[in-house]
Specification:
The protein has helices at about 20-30, 55-65, 115-120, 135-140, 180-190, 200-210, 265-270, 280; strands at about 5-10, 35-40, 45-50, 75-80, 85-90, 110, 125-130, 140, 170-175, 195-200, 215, 220, 225-230, 250-255, 260-265, 310, 325. With about 325 residues, it is an alpha/beta fold. It has three domains: about 5-90, Alpha-Beta Plaits (2-Layer Sandwich); about 110-215, 3-Layer(aba) Sandwich (Oxidized Rhodanese, domain 1), CATH 3.40.250.10; about 240-295, no CATH class. The strands form six sheets. Strands 4-1-3-2-5 form a five-stranded mixed sheet. A four-stranded parallel sheet has the order 6-10-9-7. Helix 3 (about 115-120) packs across helix 6 (about 200-210). The radius of gyration is 21 Å and the shape is globular. The termini are far apart.
């Protein structure tokens, strides 16, 4: 068993004072030596963090002890080390930016648990619709699923016409961890789709609990692993190397910081071309050293996970429990 855990979660549950809670949550992550990204919004909480097993268990227990978050379902994976380089706990207007005029607490698509989804996905009256960004489904998607050429969920209204003719079908939406589908399925219902379902817990939960059957390729994740395998039954590779055209599941960020495109690049081309997607990018004077992973954390000036907090003694690097909010 690996020593670290990676947690992926979200919950739609109103937070009356997001600014205050952001500070409390930041301190909790510091106390438990967690790294990752957490979004706090008036509508709820969304996060993915990594840490040692005991620290992650303490984090999950702390959130479940809060009545607002008792219903959180954590997707838990193993890792050899932290899968993030930094900790960011941020305030935003939505826990997943969509600008869609819907409220998942009022209406959303019917949940399908992984085993239910597995039984229903091949029904001839069912249509699978991928609600992720184009670079995500380029490296992995369910067999026969409809995908949209969109960069983010805000663009969904521009693509509804592509599935208007399917309103008489059972539509099942899916995404990485389930969060996008809460609003996407609600939006479909608002647009006149009547039989709308969503894969509860997303691709990740389906892989963990039902083996990932019929998910081709790999699942894009928002940490330094970049992609992870989810299909343990009939895996196939569907993506090809951006450089040479050979089949590969490896996705990278271009080593040129000006470009930074998400592309699939085989191991050979990665090393031959220094992790770049084009010869022009290879000439970038600011080219980042390619270490074989193709993951580059964002450079943040004067970054510190303790930014905004000081110890009661005014010293750095003391026990996290003594931290207080800086004036």
């Amino acid at each position: 068993m690996k020593p670290y855990r990676v947690l992926l979660y979200y919950i739609y549950s109103p937070i009356e004072n997001p600014d205050q809670y952001r500070e409390e949550h930041h301190l909790l992550c510091l106390q438990l030596n967690l790294l990752g990204r957490v979004i706090v919004a008036p509508e709820g909480l969304n996060g993915t963090v990594s840490g040692l097993t005991a620290d992650c268990e303490a984090y999950m227990a702390a959130l479940h002890a809060d009545p607002r978050f008792a219903g959180i379902e954590f997707k838990v994976d193993e890792a050899d080390d932290h899968t993030f380089q930094k900790l960011h706990v941020r305030i935003k207007s939505e826990i997943v930016h969509s600008d869609l005029p819907v409220d998942p607490l009022r209406q959303t698509g019917q949940y399908l648990e992984p085993d239910e989804f597995k039984k229903l996905k091949n029904d001839p009256d069912v249509v699978l619709v991928d609600m992720r960004s184009n670079y995500e489904h380029a490296v992995g998607k369910f067999k026969g699923a409809i995908t949209f050429d969109m960069e983010n969920l805000r663009e969904l209204p521009e693509h509804i016409h592509e599935i208007e003719h399917l309103k008489d079908k059972k539509v099942i939406t899916y995404c990485t961890g389930g969060i996008k589908c809460e609003k996407a399925s609600a939006y479909l219902l608002a647009q006149g789709f009547e039989n709308v379902y969503q894969l509860h817990g997303g691709i990740i939960k389906y892989g963990m609990e039902a083996g990932g059957e019929d998910f081709d390729g790999q699942c894009y994740v928002f940490d330094n692993r970049v992609t992870v395998p989810v299909n343990h039954i009939n895996p196939e590779t569907i993506s090809t190397c951006y450089r040479c055209g050979s089949q590969t599941n490896r996705m990278i960020n271009c080593a040129s910081p000006v470009c930074n495109n998400h592309v699939t690049l085989c191991d050979d081309c990665g090393h031959e071309h220094q992790g770049t997607c084009s010869d022009d990018c290879k000439q970038d004077p600011a080219l980042r050293p390619y270490d074989g992973t193709g993951y580059y954390g964002k450079q943040t000036q004067s970054y510190s996970p303790m930014q905004g907090f000081v110890s009661q003694r005014g010293q750095k690097n003391t026990t996290p429990l003594t931290l207080t909010k800086a004036d």
